[in-house]
Amino acid sequence: MPNTLPAPQETDEVWLMPVFIAKAGHETHLQEALSALQAVSRKDPGCLEYTVFSDDQRPGTFVLIEGWARREDLAAHNEETHVKDFVKGSELLLVGPFSVTPLTRLS
Fold it and tell me: What secondary structure letter does DSSP report for 8?
C-alpha cells in the first residue's frame, strides 16, 4: 500500500526568539529602543513577524519573536543600519549580551 501521507514540507523560513534583560533603571529605555526597532524592522523585506513582548514574570525582560521568509532576508536585516545601531546602543541598557534561541514551527 503506498504512503498516502503528504511529504513533510521543507521551508526556508527562519524563526528566532531573542531575549533582552534590562539593567535596573533602564527598563523604559530598553522598551522604547525595542519598540522603535520593531516598527522599522517590520518593513524589512522578508519579515514575517517581528513582535516584542514583555515577560510578565520577569520584570525588565523582553522577548522578541521574529520570523523571516528566507535566511537571506535575516542576513540582510542584520546588516541594516537600524539593527546595527540598536545592537551597539543596547549594550549600555542590558545586564549582558542578549540570547537568541532558534525556533522551529511544528505545523
Answer: P
pTM exceeds cut of 0.70: yes
Number of domains in the chain: 1
Q: Rounded to whole angstroms, how far apart are CA atoms 17 and 29? A: 20
CB atoms within 10 A of CB 99: 10
Placement of cell 517581528 in the chain: 50
Range of the domain at 90: 14-100
Q: Which residue has the cell 518593513?
A: 43
Q: Tell me if 8 is assigned to some domain.
A: no
CA 50 to CA 1: how far, in whole Å?
44
- What is the per-residue pLDDT for 6? 43
